[in-house]
Amino acid sequence: MVLAKRTNIQFGGVLLSLAGWILSCVTTYVPLWKNLNLDLNELENWTMGLWQACVVQEEGGMQCKDYDSFLALPSELRISRILMFLSNGSGIVGLLIVVLGLDCVKIGQEKQELKSRLLLLGGILLWTSGLSALVPVSWVAYDTVQEFWDESIPEIVPRWEFGEALFMGWFGGFFLIVGGCLLSYSYCTAPSEPISECYIPTHQHDKCLHLDPKYPDLTI
Question: Which has more pLDDT, 188 or 97?
Fold first, then answer.
């Protein structure tokens, strides 16, 4: 029962972490961090991401332009790039390490203690990946709210609003943190003693018959 519960926890943690890592990667590259709707021209919408700004026209489709210089970007976008790269990198490394530590993976089964430590290390990396994704997304969202309610800006000036990528980043970071916590928790549920070898009779598969020598002190 304990081993079945531990396997289910590991399976759930891997699924959540994988989903969170995919959402984090998509959030990094899509130009949908901010949206700008122009009241004077309802057929044209502007979107902005970490790498480029785009204009969406009802008749002309989407046209995007990359930023000219990294140093010319606002500080929140520069730091967001670095943190999202850190999130993606630590996420994939954490997933690879966790796979080696899963109980259902036969690699290194004779070293159960090492596999449990790999689970803990992978869980910590995934937890770090989720936190690294939540920080830049929340920072950009905070700046967007501050600019939206800035009374010094005339009301006629269009305001940036939340883009779809911010919500994907929040969900991705949350999934990574929960998945990392589940995998780290499975390390705590590891059996304290290794499972002893046993012989299973052909007529009864639910019990183990241990064969001990009849005369343990007999020497030849």
Answer: 97
